[in-house]
Every structure is written in structure tokens, then in C-alpha cells.
User: Fold this.
Amino acid sequence: MGMNSKELDKLIEKQIRDKEREKFLEWRRKLDEERGHREKEEQKEKFWMKCPKCGHSLEEIHLKMIRVDRCTNNDCHGIYLDKGELEMLLDMHLDEQTNSQLFLSLLGMKKRSGK
Ligand SMILES: [Zn+2]
Assistant:
């Protein structure tokens, strides 16, 4: 991959103009809020943060404005986007190279959550 998530964050940030950035931060805040409400309700349920395909736990992967849940099972590595995350990604209009770097990072990062 050659690029860590911090470098990628910088690259993404550079491509999003200031006024657009405001829009995304607001979007990010809204998504977090909605997610927070949902988490409270869903935490009690046994399938919360479990991969729907294989049942392993999911880890959260964060890049500046994008967050995905990824299965920790190396044979599965299913990737799950919350409602709105994909739309946000598409609406950022990143150039092709940044986009592919972003997806490679999401697919390849070895980071484990402490949970
Ligand atoms: Zn899985």
C-alpha cells in the first residue's frame, strides 16, 4: 500500500475544499449522532458488531471522515458501511488515485480494535 492512514487523511483533506469540508464535518456529526442513538438500542442485541456472514466480531476502521466496520476474520474480511457513509465517499469527488488508495487502506489495514 505504501501509504498509512495519516498520509491518506492529509491527501483527502487537501482535496476537499474548505467550504466543502464544513459540509462534511456537519455530515459526519449527524451520522455520528444517528449512530449513537442506534448503538444504544442495538448494543443489547447479540448481533451487534458481529459479521453477518461468519459471526466474527467487527472492528471499526477510521479515516478522517469515513468509517467502516470490517470483519476481523482473515478468511472473510467483510466490509460494512453505515447508511450515508458510501454516499459521503462518492460525494467527496476524490481523484482516482486517492480513491483507490483509500479503498486499499480500508481493505488492507491490520489495525485491531481494543474491544
Ligand atoms: Zn466475517
Remarks:
- The chain has one domain: 5-108.
- Residues 59 and 93 are 26 Å apart (CA to CA).
- DSSP finds four helices and three strands in the chain.
